[in-house]
Amino acid sequence: MKKLLMALVVAAPVAFGLGGVNAAEAKTNVKIYLGVPHYGYQVGPDYMYRKGYGWYRPGKRFNRLSCGEARRIVRNRGYYNIEARNCSGGTYVFRAVRNNRVAIVYVNAHSGAVWRG
What's the predicted TM-score (pTM) here? Predict the structure, then answer.
């Protein structure tokens, strides 16, 4: 632990430019966006331009299933007596019965993938 702290004491000034090393000035522009990725160029013909952000591809990937659609997916997997526990966020949670056993079933709200809990 002492060695790690000593290494941090030595490395921190260098990392923050406080050491005796003269660093070259890099002229870069970094933008961070959360959500849909944006590009500085048109990647494909289906990309759209958003002023101030750049090029992005709208698509079904970012759309969510409704709770009813997710319930139908669970029913098509052989479950019955399906009760929605949570239909918000990226994962929907259902309580359902299959083979006379109660199970907690999760559905990915974007892809429709189903798994048991």
Answer: 0.49
